[in-house]
Amino acid sequence: MERSEAPASRPASPPALIPVEVAYARPERQLIVELDVPEGTTVEQAVRASGILTEFPEIDLGGKNKVGIFGKVVPLDRALRARDRVEIYRPLIADPKEIRRRRAAAGKRMKKGAGSA
To answer: Among 56, 76, 77, 93, which lies 20 to 30 A Cα-Cα from 46?
Structure first.
């Protein structure tokens, strides 16, 4: 009786690397880090691997800072695709709707006084 041998198991090949960018900006300084990460890497993993958290310790991924890919907010556990740019957003200082209301009110006051001379 002949025995058939099981094929030798090959070591699992490492996942392919994909290029991504991680970006953060303050008014006076911006940083974009290019890196290659394994397929399946999440947004949070890429941010941590980029070193940006060391450069900008004020970033709070779990709290005040949202993250996105090309301008669209995404969760931290989203898997990245090749050439994605992860953006870390600073929290808003003022509500944009409230600012527009104030500008509109100021504009109305200016128009009322514009005709008198």
So the answer is: 93
